[in-house]
Design brief:
18 helices, single chain
């Protein structure tokens, strides 16, 4: 009967078989497009990290844009499916999104180098456009599969479930498999290729190849691949967490700088481990040399490895020292061995693990020294900054042991003050080492911020010996403790596992780490 509830809707053109889209094909399209949205979201975060930092704000921005894309795409896809033959929409949605995804690495890296003011806009579009197009596939496919109002709940529920499973698989596959095995650019170019091929298959299945845009989309993928090869900002290696490069020092044949996500993380002299380039490393070495008898071996634990500059220094100046290093990035450890001269048998044991989890495995009273120097881009992993984490540090230190940490902050130094307040709540004795203006000892000079080194112990700190060692290394740094330090902390709230807004407190700088 004409107009009955079981009749096909206005956009239908017969049965699903006539439309060339059966239940399995519909499920594959929804599953694949939903997975692709999450792949783009996760990989975009990695692609942007060298330029915007791997911070809570960056993650929130990317997630927000991706959710916006999903909302806009779902709404527009459903609206268009009611107005246009849905079979005309699926192929272009897949194909155009594939072309944009494949072009993304080259376009973003070029923009970061030549038009940094436009980077955020271009990055937003690179996530929003393919995300919206791919999210439109689910309502379009749903429209094609709805041939009777009696089965609306079944069709919508099934395809929604399939889409959710696809998103889960895309997330897990990217996070646990793709990022650890493939470069970011390779993931996006590969995904773009699959989407364009999928577009061609859909066009053939549903419309018997009426589309004419496939050659142009294929060309876009090829251009994306070639553009990525010549675009600036390349890496020597893309690790699970970083875009990594090793840069030779033109003024020192054996000098190497480890650059992670565009930031200078470590300087290593592969022939002379006692040569310390960065001021903060010289400050840490000065504090250690002042706290322990010269040449005496020790047991040390390092939260964060990077180029392993300090473990090498301790091995060279204190033969017999055993250093255990918690480094979360296996790719950085591989670079240490292949490019930075790390040799076995040097008394340095590197474990690929999270620093806080590594601390928990250590026995109480087992370390003379703990060094905190872990960074994720421009920020510090927040869970290594809290009262609870510092209590674990104190637990593994011997009674007269020493904790030394590298801090980076600028502007009002809000994070640095909060972290020192955290240590002041945990240890009996705390001191800060840094540029006089940065630690409140030179009020006539404006603080530029940068690296600070904080010392904490349950035994009194020999700051006179520390200052002597700093002067010998010509750092220009000073020490502060007691009332001066309390005044500098200025009532900052200690960080806890329940309250640690590190990304909000820390003010990054365009100056590279270690400068």
């Amino acid at each position: 009967m004409t107009g009955s509830p079981s009749s096909p809707g206005p956009g239908a053109e017969g049965s699903p078989r006539d439309q060339g889209l059966g239940p399995r094909a519909a499920a594959v399209l929804v599953f694949g497009s939903s997975a692709a949205v999450l792949v783009v979201e996760i990989v975009a975060l990695r692609l942007l990290a060298p330029y915007l930092g791997l911070t809570l704000e960056t993650s929130t921005l990317v997630i927000g844009i991706a959710l916006t894309a999903i909302a806009v795409g779902s709404w527009l896809g459903g609206r268009l499916a009611d107005q246009v033959d849905p079979r005309r929409l699926i192929g272009p949605s897949l194909g155009v999104s594939g072309a944009v995804v494949a072009l993304t690495p080259a376009v973003l890296r070029t923009a970061a180098e030549w038009a940094p003011a436009l980077l955020l806009l271009i990055a937003s579009l690179a996530i929003l456009v393919p995300g919206a197009l791919l999210s439109a596939v689910t309502p379009i496919v749903t429209k094609l599969r709805l041939t009777s109002l009696a089965e609306t709940g079944t069709v919508v529920g099934r395809l929604s479930g399939v889409g959710t499973v696809g998103a889960i698989v895309g997330t897990v596959l990217t996070g646990f498999v793709l990022v650890s095995r493939l470069p970011v650019s390779g993931i996006l170019i590969g995904l773009g290729t699959l989407l364009v091929v999928g577009s061609a298959v859909v066009e053939w299945r549903t419309r018997r190849w009426r589309g004419t845009g496939t050659p142009a989309l294929t060309l876009a993928v090829v251009v994306g691949g070639l553009g990525t090869a010549v675009a600036p900002g390349g890496c020597d290696a893309e690790t699970r967490y970083h875009c990594a490069r090793v840069v030779a020092d033109p003024d020192r044949d054996s000098g190497r700088t480890l650059v992670l996500d565009g930031l200078r993380h470590s300087y290593v002299d592969v022939d002379d481990p006692t040569f310390l380039e960065f001021a903060y490393v010289r400050a840490i070495a000065s504090a250690v040399d002042a706290a322990f008898p010269e040449g005496e071996p020790m047991t040390a634990h390092h939260l964060g490895g990077g180029g392993l500059t300090l473990p090498r220094y301790l091995a060279a100046t204190r033969p017999g020292t055993r250093s255990l290093v918690s480094e979360i990035d296996s790719g950085v450890v591989r670079i240490d061995r292949e490019r930075l001269g790390l040799r076995s048998g040097a008394g340095i044991d590197v474990r690929v693990e999270d620093g806080r989890l590594g601390l928990r495995e250590l026995a109480a009273d087992s370390r003379d020294l703990v060094v905190g120097d872990a960074f994720g881009g421009v920020s510090v992993p927040w869970h290594l900054t809290t009262v609870e984490a510092m209590a674990d540090v104190r637990r593994v230190l011997v009674p007269d042991g020493l904790y030394v940490a590298n801090l980076i902050d600028h502007g009002g130094m809000d994070f640095a003050r909060a972290e020192v307040a955290t240590l002041d709540e945990t240890f009996e004795h705390v001191a800060v080492v840094g540029e006089p203006a940065d630690i409140g000892l030179d009020t006539a000079t404006t603080s530029d911020g940068g690296n600070l080194v904080v010392l904490a112990s349950d035994r009194p700190l020999d700051l006179r010996a520390t200052q002597k060692a700093l002067d010998a290394r010509r750092t220009g740094w000073r020490t502060t403790t007691g009332d001066d330090l309390t005044s500098w902390i200025d009532g900052a709230r200690p960080l806890t596992d329940d309250y640690a807004p590190v990304d909000q407190l820390l003010q990054p700088s365009t100056t590279r780490r270690g400068d």
